[in-house]
Input
Amino acid sequence: MNTQFKKGVLELIVLLAVNKKDMYGYELVMEVSKVVDVNDGTIYPLLKRLTNERYFETYLVDSTEGPARKYYKITVLGKERVEELRDNWKVFANSVNKFIKESMKNE
Amino acid sequence: MNTQFKKGVLELIVLLAVNKKDMYGYELVMEVSKVVDVNDGTIYPLLKRLTNERYFETYLVDSTEGPARKYYKITVLGKERVEELRDNWKVFANSVNKFIKESMKNE
DNA sequence: ATTTAGTACTTGACAATACAAGGTAGTTGA
DNA sequence: TCAACTACCTTGTATTGTCAAGTACTAAAT
Output
C-alpha cells in the first residue's frame, strides 16, 4: 500500500472513527487497519497530537483483558475539524479524479 | 489546502501530465497548479527524482522567451509506474470514501 | 544601454508524517 | 510459571513537500 497517499488522511479517518463513538487506542488501530495498513506506532503519537490540539478528551476505563483502556472522546472543536477535513478531502479527491479522467482522454 | 493530502499524489499528477505529452518544468508547474496549489520549488526536485528513477528522460529545446526548456518525456518504466500509481490511488480513494460514508450513517 | 518582467531551474534549511523496532505492563489459560 | 494476548507508549529514521533565496537567460520597454 502506498505510504504517501496516507499522509494527512489518517487524521481524518481517526477523527471520523472517534466522532462516531468513543474508542480506545488499540481499538482504533484495529478499526483503522481495516481501511489502510497502519502501524500502532503511527496511531498513538497521532492520538496524542489530536488530544493536545483539543480535538479529543480522554478518560480511563479498567479492563479485564489487560491494562486500563484510554478512551478518546471527540470535542466540539474536534467535530468542527472533522467537517473541515472531510470537505477538504472531498474537494481534493474530486480534483485528482477529474485530472485522471482528463489525462486518459487521448490515451 | 491541506498540505498533507498532496504527499504522494503530486507524483501521480506529474506522471499523468507527462504521460499525456512531453512537457517542460515551468509548464508543468502551471498545469499541476490547476489541480493542487503547488510551489515551483516543489516540482523541480520532484522532476529530478523521477528522472533519476528512470521514469522520465529529458531533452533541451531552445526558447525565444527565456532560457532553453528542459522537456520531460515518459519512459516505458514511467508508463508502468503511472498505471501502478493510478490503480493504487483508486483503491485508496475508494476505501477512504467508503469509510466516510459508513461513519456518517448514524450521525 | 539599462531596467523590468517573465521564464527556467537549483539549492539548502526546515516541517510533517509514517514506519520499524523496541519497551512497559496487566490478564488469562495451559 | 510462563507464554500469549491485550494495551499503551517512545525513539530513531526515511521520505516527501515547503519555503526562501539565488542564478541565469531573453525580450520588450524606457
